[in-house]
Design a protein that fits this description.
By secondary structure, this protein is an all-alpha fold. Helix content is about 65%, strand content about 0%.
Length: about 170
């Protein structure tokens, strides 16, 4: 699959979360998103920011590009997880980890202490040990997802569909 084929395929399957996506399809689309984001930021910088003022926020072109490409990127990642034999929900693993950490912190009352400026409460006692381990898991969880996304295609058909690299007879 070529760069342009991958972009065309991902936009054609804009909200298709079923099926499988090959490695080149997904990673060429990620490359397109990165390059498109750089171009959109350059356009924003040229059109919407005065030379004397540097702003950290993105401009309208970058925001529109991000909104247009978010769903296809999520769908392509979902299909890529299917191609490796995993559920697409594994793509959301880092988000679920942070939701779990926030829920645990809220239930144990750590968030109130941290909001009042007592950061030491985050690391005290058994709750602190659990929070440290949880934060370490949260740091490594995106790396695990990236590793899953780089795995080779599962040979033959799996529960999510036929192999995208095999030509049907």
């Amino acid at each position: 699959m070529t760069f342009t084929d991958a972009i065309r395929t991902c936009f054609r399957k804009y909200i298709t979360f079923s099926g499988r996506a090959s490695r080149p399809e997904y990673w060429y689309f990620v490359l397109f998103i990165v390059l498109g984001g750089i171009v959109a930021s350059a356009i924003d910088g040229a059109l919407f920011r005065p030379a004397a003022r540097v702003s950290d926020s993105s401009g309208p072109v970058s925001n529109i590009f991000s909104l247009v490409t978010f769903i296809p990127l999520l769908a392509a990642g979902w299909r890529r997880m299917h191609d490796t034999g995993r559920s697409g929900l594994y793509l959301l693993y880092p988000i679920l980890v942070w939701v779990g950490i926030a829920s645990f912190a809220a239930m144990t009352g750590v968030t109130g202490e941290v909001m009042s400026g007592n950061i030491g409460a985050l690391y005290s006692g058994i709750v602190g040990i659990i929070m440290i381990v949880s934060i370490l898991i949260a740091i490594f969880s995106p790396l695990i997802v990236i590793w899953w996304l780089t795995r080779p295609t599962q040979p033959g058909p799996n529960t999510y569909g036929s192999n995208p690299n095999e030509v049907p007879a």
